[in-house]
Write a structure and sequence with these properties.
The chain has 381 residues and is of the alpha+beta class. It is 50% helix and 13% strand. The protein has a 5-stranded mixed sheet with strand order 2-4-5-9-8, with helices on one face. About 6% of the residues have low confidence. Bound molecules: 1,3-dihydro-2H-indol-2-one (W6P).
Length: 381
Amino acid sequence: LNLSNHIEYYSKFQPTSFTLKSLIDFARDADIKRSYKFLRVELLIRWSHMRKEMNYLPPKLLEMPSFALANSWYDQSYSEILEFKNVDPDASTLRKFTEALVDIRKRHVDVVSTLAKAYMEFEKVSSSNSIEKNRIQYFYDRFFLNRIGVRTLIYHHTLLFGDESPQHSQQAGIIDPSVDIAAVIQDAYSMAKQLFQQVSYPVPKIEIQSHSSQDHSANPVTIIYIPSHIYHIVFELLKNSLHATVERYGLDAKEYPTVRVLIVKGAEDLTIRIDDRGVGISRSKLSHLFHYMYSTAPKFLLNGHEQNTKNIPIAGLGYGLPIARLYARYFQGNLSIASIENHGTSAYVLLQGTAENASERLPIFCKSRYSYTTNKGSDWT
Ligand code: W6P
């Protein structure tokens, strides 16, 4: 299997960045031939950029069994898509292409946990220095962001032209032109509540408030977006807030402070703020929340005792926060966390409020980025 010539070739093209608006227009057109001709090239371009970038990772990381496994999935998928090069889009080809995309989505479902494992394998054989840590952090962020983009395009295509149907009937492929933010937050809370109850954790209550600068009626605040992305983000944040609250007050408290959620739609952004009165995070640990390095082996402390986290579902999702931030950034939003130690934590999710401004943020391979990282590493003491 020799893909390197193809990788060289396709990495010379820039990826095409979509907006939520252009993805909806694409869906309204629903031209499967156009989608086929576009995707069979675009997927190769996006994968090629990441493959080029991978060469700048510590070579030992690439050799780890889990990294090799993930790469074998990419090789497989890359060659499957390559086979459609120069193949005319007759009905049978289009059907095969759509089926190939469904298979690819399934094949890559465990990429994040597999690369998390690869990082742990790497740390075991050779403890990484700070330059290597930075490079891996930089690469993982870009790689997982690219993956979100690829999966979005693939899922959009298979929802529009395949046998699966979207969650809500008003959806245009993967996009819902009217996501009810408070409803998504309620869904995410219900799921978090279930997880907590499964392990006999108490569940603090939540309260949701919302305002819109454009609409002062009691209508729910809505936005054009991909509902699963918002769900993913708020689920992760709520889980953390609930956990921090229980951690502070213990498992048997009579009452817990409510987790307060505020949704505000302004002219530019839609902001979601999630406030808890949990243990808070010290400044020194705050930046670690988004480090892949510190998230690989989740340890939960409850009232000073280390819990056996083996079978606890709420603990097993090590890369939750960094991935949640990537979901927010994917369409030019952001996620940030501010905390007062021993008082509580506020998480801010900012999303683009208009579909025209919500454009895909995509990594482009850039060699010079890597060449000026020297051994001196930092320009501070
Ligand atoms: C905490 C730690 C944290 C991370 C993310 C979101 C909320 C919270 N609360 O104590």
